[in-house]
């Protein structure tokens, strides 16, 4: 297929996204950049208004047609028979996700696909209410979804192989990297890796061994410094597997294996210090400068993309 025909085919595709929070808003931008028409449903009027302003700014910056993304205040505003892919990106409430999918699946064509963007729930638990679960899978983006390359595609209990291939193909066509999980495990791959690290980090903070600032310095300017260029498994080949094995034998028994979130997290949540949104978390955030700083963060990530896109498979460097 020629590039022109491929682009025309992509332009005819339609994605419907449930939820216009930061994740849903950025998923829409990711698909709009890939030539899809995006229909986004958000019932919270205040959030919808904030997201519309955000899209206007981002579409100008990215040179995207603003008309590629349409906001709806209710499900009835969408031409559901035109939708090729439905992505639920609402809050991590299993009952809510199931209710919405149960309600909307009958409105879709039988050849349409359904994805859940859940970050922690089991895919099979979310999609068990579907009449056609073989046409569903996990499609987990990371914030900012229109910038971060990796997208996790997770096989549910009844997901068909053809569905996995279709999702992976769409993700690659968006210019992203598909990470396919062959089994449905809580947290998928990225969150399992992150939370294993976070558990140790917050344990060390709780114990008074390190500060939050020193943790960020250690990761950003230590082992994290390598990661734009190679992953952790490739790095073990480079640094030597016998050394890693010997260290692991002595270190693993000393690592924290608690089953509850860290005390410092519970204290911050109880105090209402939720991070950027409340002006304070581990750090203090000035509302007068936060938006500008977050835009700069996104710009820095996009600048990194220009270098990272030159590298293909994990050991290509």
Name the shape in a single word: globular
**pLDDT < 50 stretches:** 1-11
Beta-strand content estimate: 5-15%
Strand ordering within the main sheet: 3-2-1-4-5-6-7-8
Q: Name the helix and strand elements from N-terminus to C-terminus, one letter apiece.
A: HEHEHEEHEHEEHEHHHHHH
CATH architecture call of the largest domain: 3-Layer(aba) Sandwich
Mean pLDDT: 92
Can you describe this structure in just a few lines?
With 317 residues, this protein is an alpha/beta fold. Helix content is 46%, strand content 12%.
Structure description:
This protein is 46% helix and 12% strand. It contains twelve helices and eight strands. Mean pLDDT is 92; it is low at 1-11. It has helices at 3-12, 22-33, 45-62, 94-104, 123-127, 161-173, 190-206, 212-221, 232-239, 241-251, 263-271, 287-308; strands at residues 14-18, 37-41, 69-72, 85-88, 113-116, 136-140, 150-154, 177-181. The relative contact order is 0.08. With 317 residues, it is α/β, with parallel strands linked by helices. Helix 6 links the parallel strand 7 (150-154) and strand 8. It folds into two domains: 3-181, NAD(P)-binding Rossmann-like Domain (Rossmann fold), CATH 3.40.50.720; 190-308, N-(1-d-carboxylethyl)-l-norvaline Dehydrogenase, domain 2 (Orthogonal Bundle), CATH 1.10.1040.10.
């Amino acid at each position: 297929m020629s590039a022109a025909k491929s682009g025309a085919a992509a332009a005819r595709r339609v994605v419907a996204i449930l939820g216009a929070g930061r994740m849903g808003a950025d998923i829409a931008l990711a698909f709009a950049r890939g030539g899809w028409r995006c229909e986004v449903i958000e019932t919270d009027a205040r959030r919808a208004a904030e997201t519309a302003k955000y899209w206007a700014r981002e579409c100008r910056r990215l040179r995207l047609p603003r008309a590629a993304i349409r906001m709806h205040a209710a499900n009835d505003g969408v031409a559901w028979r035109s939708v090729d892919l439905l992505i639920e990106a609402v809050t991590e409430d299993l009952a809510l996700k199931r209710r919405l999918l149960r309600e909307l699946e009958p409105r879709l064509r039988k050849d349409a696909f359904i994805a859940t963007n859940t970050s922690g729930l089991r895919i099979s638990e979310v999609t068990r209410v579907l009449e056609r679960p073989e046409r569903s899978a996990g499609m987990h983006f990371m914030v900012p979804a229109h910038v971060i390359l990796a997208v996790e595609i997770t096989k549910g209990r009844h997901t068909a192989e053809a569905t996995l291939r279709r999702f992976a193909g769409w993700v690659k066509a968006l210019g992203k990297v598909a990470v396919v999980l062959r089994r449905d495990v809580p947290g998928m791959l990225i969150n399992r890796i992150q939370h294993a690290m976070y558990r140790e980090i917050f344990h060390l903070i709780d114990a008074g061994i390190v500060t939050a600032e020193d943790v960020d310095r250690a990761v950003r300017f230590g082992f994290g410094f390598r990661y734009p260029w190679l992953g952790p498994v490739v790095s073990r080949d480079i640094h030597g597997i016998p050394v890693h094995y010997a260290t692991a034998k002595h270190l693993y028994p000393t690592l924290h294996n608690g089953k509850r979130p860290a005390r410092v997290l519970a204290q911050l949540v109880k105090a209402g210090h939720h991070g950027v949104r409340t002006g304070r978390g581990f750090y203090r955030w000035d509302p007068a400068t936060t938006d500008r700083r977050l835009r700069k963060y996104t710009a820095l990530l996009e600048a990194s993309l220009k270098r990272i896109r030159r590298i293909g498979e994990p050991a290509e460097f």
